[in-house]
Amino acid sequence: MELLLVVFALFVIATPLATVYLLWRERILRQQLLKLTNLSMEISDGLRRDLLELKRQVEGSAVPAAPAEAPSHVSADHAETERTTVPVAPPARPPPSSLQ
């Protein structure tokens, strides 16, 4: 019974000390989190500004490209013929044993 009272007394003494320590650690962690949040927001805002500036530069330097069309003197049939594919390898020959 006495051992139980000693253990209970230790818990009673340790509880306020542990509470103060944990509250102190929580305050330090909260400050670190706020610093990291502010740093993250600054970096994000800077990257967003850089991206907007690059988009403006690209839009300013972009020249509208004319669509690639066949010249007017080439007929539509001839243009279709140019797009067909040609086989790369000749057709395979049958094995010599089947020729006899």
Description:
- The protein has 100 residues and is mainly alpha-helical.
- The protein has a domain at 12-54.
- It is built from two helices and no strands.
- The chain has helices spanning 2-61, 76-83.
- The longest helix is centred in the N-terminal third of the chain and has 60 residues, at 2-61.
- It is elongated and about 105 Å long.
- It starts with a helix and ends in a 17-residue tail after the last helix.
- 0% of the residues are buried.
- The model has no long low-confidence stretch (mean pLDDT 82).
Summary, kept brief:
The protein has 2 helices and no strands. The protein has helices spanning 2-61, 76-83. 0% of the residues are buried.
Biggest sheet: strands, sense, closure?
none
Sheet-strand content, in percent, reads under 5%
Coarse structural class:
mainly alpha
Q: Total number of β-strand segments?
A: 0
Computed over alpha carbons, the radius of gyration is 40 Å
Task: Provide tags for this entry.
elongated, about 70% helix, mainly alpha, about 100 residues, about 0% strand
